Amino acid sequence: MKISLIKFGRIKYEEIGVLTEHYAKRIKPFCPFENYAVKEDKKSIATASLALKTQFVISCDERGRLMDSLSFSKQLLTWIETYPKGIAFIVGGSYGHPPEVTSLAKEQIALAKMVLTSDLAYLMLMEQIYRAFNIANGTPYHH
Q1: Is 143 domain-assigned?
Q2: Which of 5, 32, 70, 78 counts the most CB atoms within 10 A of its CB?
């Protein structure tokens, strides 16, 4: 069971890249995890779309289902149990999700009622995935 987190478009701020790598390292003891940014060109999007076809895809969108951290933790564990081939979270670029990828999403979640930059959404989702595992394992990270 693997979790993938894919951001379309480059990470614009070096600090966001540093923080996302920090959380990626913290998530990996809980489950196999990969995160990466995909260029917003036709070839890269086509390659990403092909790879996503074997996973349960969840897109981040301000119109998606809004959850608190406890609900997200329970939902993440359900997805993990239900989809053993893996789950993939996708974060759109500056202009949203590429249509080829949007059509693969089986679920949409919102990270906030407000629109976030793609860099902030990527970082925020990564922290919430880490928090979800800590909630599930009863660690003091979430108190």
Answers
A1: no
A2: 5
Instruction: Report how far residue 77's alpha carbon sits from residue 71's, in angstroms, rounded to the nearest whole number.
Output: 10
What is the domain count for the chain? 1
- CA-to-CA separations, 70 to 51, 60, 74, 107, in angstroms, rounded: 30, 18, 6, 18
Q: Give the CATH number of the domain where residue 55 resides.
A: 3.40.1280.10
**Non-local CB neighbours of 79 within 8 Å, separated by 6+ positions:** 56, 58, 87
pLDDT tens-digit series, residues 11-36: 999 999 999 999 999 999 999 999 99
pTM of structure: 0.95
Give residue 114's domain range.
Answer: 3-137
Residue 142 lies in a domain: no
pLDDT tens digits for 65-77? 999 999 999 999 9
